[in-house]
């Protein structure tokens, strides 16, 4: 507690309790000379505080030491201790640095974290597990277009097999691939994000891989699940 706060506390204690100033100062740890010393402030303190707040607003990353250097450059006869005292009294703080946003892609040309640029560029699918009122499990397969956030498919069943997943995604594009002049034709979508774990490593992924489609595996966060339906 600062001496001015202790001075105010001693005054309040003496107003509520019939004790002497000596005893109140001894209990609260306040020197009697400090208690009786009349507080004075410099004539230019109001202007200094106003300028201090202006500099703190203008230079948000400056602390009291750099602000002291700026004030001295402007001709203010102040030291860092006085500026630090006024800095604390006004409640000024340097905001913490925000973490930089990481890369959305890898250096090796992978599409694991590549952001969708147009519709049907990246399709993402994931599984959501729930239970009904009787305690029986209920599974949902959601397929979302990452660019338009459109829910392309929503399959609800008690049990989902790899064939069910394959049929759900195949049903979104009737033309899987056709041989035209011995050339493989890919479907509309170019990337697929599958969930991590056993659900993304099933026979479905291997079947898609045999079709020759360009696909990638990525772990889908819980935030995506909240916006998938």
Any overview of this molecule?
With 229 residues, the protein is of the alpha/beta class. The protein has three domains: 1-11 and 18-40, no CATH class; 41-96; 122-176 and 185-226, Ribonuclease H-like superfamily/Ribonuclease H (Nucleotidyltransferase, domain 5). 37% of the residues lie in helices and 14% in strands. The protein has helices spanning 3-16, 21-28, 32-36, 45-58, 64-73, 80-89, 162-170, 203-211, 222-226; strands at 122-131, 137-145, 150-157, 191-194, 216-217. A five-stranded mixed β-sheet has the order 3-2-1-4-5, with helices on one face. A hairpin with a 5-residue loop joins strand 1 and strand 2 (137-145). Helix 1 (3-16) packs across helix 2 (21-28), helix 5 packs across helix 6 (80-89) and helix 7 runs parallel beside helix 8 (203-211). It is elongated. It starts with a helix and ends with a helix. Mean pLDDT is 75; it is low at 175-189 and 207-229.
């Amino acid at each position: 507690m600062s001496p001015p706060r202790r001075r105010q506390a001693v005054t309040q204690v003496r107003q509520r309790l019939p004790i002497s100033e000596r005893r109140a100062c001894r209990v609260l740890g306040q020197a009697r000379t400090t208690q009786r010393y009349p507080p004075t402030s410099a004539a230019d303190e109001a202007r200094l505080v106003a300028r201090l707040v202006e500099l703190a607003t203008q230079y948000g990353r400056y602390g009291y030491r750099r602000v002291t250097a700026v004030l001295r450059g402007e001709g203010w006869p102040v030291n860092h201790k006085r500026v630090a005292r006024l800095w604390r009294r006004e409640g000024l703080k340097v905001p913490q640095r925000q973490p930089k946003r990481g890369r959305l892609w890898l250096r090796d040309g992978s599409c694991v974290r590549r952001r969708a640029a147009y519709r049907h560029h990246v399709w993402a699918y994931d599984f959501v597990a729930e239970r009904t009122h009787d305690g029986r499990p209920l599974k949902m397969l959601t397929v979302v277009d990452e660019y338009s956030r459109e829910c392309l498919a929503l399959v609800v069943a008690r049990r989902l097999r790899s064939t069910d997943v394959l049929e759900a995604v195949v049903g979104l594009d009737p033309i899987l691939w056709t041989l035209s002049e011995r050339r493989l034709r890919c479907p509309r979508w170019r990337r697929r994000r599958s969930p991590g774990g056993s659900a993304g490593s099933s026979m479905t992924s291997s079947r898609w891989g045999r079709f020759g489609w360009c696909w990638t595996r990525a772990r889908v966060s819980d935030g995506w699940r909240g916006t998938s339906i």
